[in-house]
């Protein structure tokens, strides 16, 4: 926030202020409009809001406000080679009243500043002559400058007097500015304020009239009870909502797809009063705020609902914005409500930001009609053809299928290693449970057939002991465990049924493709021998503490071991260390004849 003259006086004293006002100054009118910044990054224009945060896809869907600007600025720049590292700032006036103040004949794009950036920091601000040159090059309006040079004593005192709210009936800031400097840039009766800038300092004066107008706009005379009721209903709806498996190119697309899914199901669960006036669900506007940008919504069911009634559009906008930020108690939203709602905000943001497409450590998943099968169909035809050859031979000697008995309780399967079991893996289990709202069965692959070689593996007895300890202390979260002979999907389903029905299967990194091919072979080639649910999915999830866990064993470091493993595993530290010492030869393994 730029300081006013009176704030500078209070903070830095009269000498500092006088020194500033005695310099060569540029004074420009502050326009009550949207601010956009852009720069050339590797040949592509990147656009930002006034706080230098990117204008992202989610904001573009919430409002079509920026769409013209993003398109037209690209055209204005055209083939102009913008140097990298230069940031161009401008006022954007899409209508005659972009925000609170009305304007007539104001240019749509007014270039205000050009700055140089290095390592994410502004290191230089170009003078107004350079900015004017760039405005001409880019076919934009010049900066809204109303004075350039040194202020007279009368001008300095008049500005300071107004900023300190010491009025003597001289009129409002627009009239005072006209007396001191000539016509204002906008030539309107009310202006937002003035920006005063020297070579290295900047200050502002906000007009008293604008302050009153702004205060009136910010008062919300409309009850937000209807808005709060939507959030309350949404909170209840989320109790029984399971996050589906979705794919997208980036986290923003994934967020919008997920919100579309929530919206579609919410509208099925709650009767929407289509006669409700949408203004009850819309926050107060300070001017032109744009409309929902339907062109960027890809979900067909969502578009059909939105086009039914303006109320659906308002509810969809509420959902998009509601899950982006944590809430605070307000109105009908109690502290307990907010605490619960914010857990969903956390889950959704964590899911979308750490999805497969960002190569982070959450879930890497395939999706299709059985969600997984479609992804495999995109493989090279030779892969599938080879499967079909094998299948045709196998089917000739195979007995007819028996009826498949599905499991009674839906579960998630987490196949992982126990080298040892870490906090990262425990967090993965909690994440899986929160996402799909089903208990998680932990599965390990037996090592009894492994040849002891140059890689240390914990014995099956110690793996089993770790699994037992986890189940005994987390019965509701982890109802049971399995140790299977190999990475065999059929074996997993046979062990689970008839008590449990796998709903999703997660593996360690690097194993998803193997399980996916097995599923394709069993369901598509062999005609559905497992009989998975339509929404059954396969993904992978990373144990980020794996290497650290092994290092604590190698270094015999119980202190660090206790930090990165659950307390249920701590009792097995010395046993694992003893096995490691025997393996590496530091302790002799005495054979019994």
Structural commentary:
- It is elongated and about 90 Å long.
- The chain has a 6-stranded mixed β-sheet with strand order 10-15-14-11-12-13, sandwiched between helices. Strands 3-2-4-5-6 form a 5-stranded antiparallel β-sheet, with helices on one face.
- The chain contains 22 helices and 15 strands.
- 42% of the residues lie in helices and 15% in strands.
- Strand 8 and strand 9 (202-206) form a beta hairpin.
- Helix 1 (5-12) packs across helix 2, helix 10 (251-269) crosses helix 13 and helix 20 (546-554) runs antiparallel to helix 21 (558-564).
- It has 593 residues and is an alpha/beta fold.
- The protein folds into 3 domains: 5-215, D-amino Acid Aminotransferase, Chain A, domain 1 (2-Layer Sandwich); 225-353, no CATH class; 373-584, 3-Layer(aba) Sandwich (Rossmann fold).
Comma- or semicolon-separated keywords:
42% helix, 15 strands, 6-stranded mixed sheet, Rossmann fold, 593 residues, 5-stranded antiparallel sheet
């Amino acid at each position: 926030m730029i300081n006013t003259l009176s704030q500078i006086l209070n903070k830095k004293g009269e000498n500092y202020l006088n020194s500033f006002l005695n310099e060569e100054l540029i004074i420009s009118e502050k326009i009550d409009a949207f601010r956009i910044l852009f720069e050339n990054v590797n040949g592509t224009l990147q656009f930002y809001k006034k706080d230098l945060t990117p204008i992202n896809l989610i904001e573009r869907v919430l409002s079509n406000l920026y769409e013209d600007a993003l398109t037209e600025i690209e055209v204005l720049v055209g083939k102009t080679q913008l140097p990298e590292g230069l940031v161009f700032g401008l006022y954007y006036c899409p209508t005659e009243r972009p925000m609170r103040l009305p304007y007539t004949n104001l240019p749509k794009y007014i270039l205000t500043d050009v700055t140089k950036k290095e390592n994410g920091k502004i290191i230089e601000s170009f003078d107004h002559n350079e900015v004017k040159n760039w405005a001409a090059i880019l076919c934009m309006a010049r900066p809204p400058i109303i004075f350039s040079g040194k202020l007279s004593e009368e001008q300095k005192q008049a500005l300071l007097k107004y900023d300190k709210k010491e009025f003597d009936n001289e009129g409002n800031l627009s009239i005072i500015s006209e007396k001191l400097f000539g016509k204002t840039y906008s030539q309107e009766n009310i202006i937002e304020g003035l920006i005063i800038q020297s070579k290295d300092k900047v200050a502002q004066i906000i007009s008293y009239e604008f302050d009153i107008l702004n205060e009136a706009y910010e008062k919300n005379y409309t009850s937000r009870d209807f808005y709060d009721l939507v959030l309350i209903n949404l909170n209840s709806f989320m109790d029984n909502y399971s996050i589906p498996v979705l794919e997208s190119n980036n986290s923003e697309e994934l967020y919008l797809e997920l919100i579309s899914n929530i919206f579609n199901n919410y509208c099925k669960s709650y009767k929407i009063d289509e006669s409700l006036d949408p203004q009850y669900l819309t926050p107060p506007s300070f001017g032109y705020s744009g409309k929902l940008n339907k062109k960027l919504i890809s979900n067909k069911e969502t578009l059909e609902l939105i086009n039914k009634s303006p109320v659906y559009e308002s509810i969809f906008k509420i959902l998009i914005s509601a899950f982006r930020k944590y809430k605070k108690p307000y109105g009908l939203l109690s502290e307990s409500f907010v605490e619960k709602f914010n857990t969903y905000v956390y889950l959704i943001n964590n899911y979308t930001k750490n999805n497969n497409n960002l190569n982070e450590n959450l879930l890497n998943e395939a999706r299709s009609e059985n969600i997984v099968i479609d992804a495999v169909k995109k493989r090279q035809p030779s892969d599938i053809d080879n499967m079909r050859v094998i299948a045709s031979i196998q089917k000739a000697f195979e007995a007819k299928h028996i009826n498949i008995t599905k499991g009674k309780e839906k579960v998630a399967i987490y196949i992982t290693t126990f080298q040892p079991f870490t906090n990262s893996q425990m967090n993965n289990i909690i994440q899986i449970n929160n996402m799909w709202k089903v208990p998680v069965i932990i599965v390990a692959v037996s090592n009894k057939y492994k040849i002891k070689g140059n890689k240390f593996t914990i014995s099956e007895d110690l793996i089993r002991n770790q699994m037992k300890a986890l189940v005994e202390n987390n019965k509701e979260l982890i109802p049971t465990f399995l140790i299977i002979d190999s990475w065999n999907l059929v074996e997993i389903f046979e062990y689970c049924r008839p008590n449990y029905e796998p709903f999703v299967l997660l593996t360690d990194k690097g194993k998803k493709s193997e399980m996916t091919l097995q599923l394709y072979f069993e369901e598509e080639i062999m005609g559905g021998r497992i009989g998975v649910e339509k929404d059954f999915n396969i993904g992978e999830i990373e144990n980020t503490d794996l290497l650290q866990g092994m290092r604590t064993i190698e270094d015999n470091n119980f202190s660090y071991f206790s930090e990165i493993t659950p307390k249920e595993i701590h009792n097995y530290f010395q046993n694992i260390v003893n096995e490691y010492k025997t393996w590496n030869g530091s302790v002799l393994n005495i054979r019994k004849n």
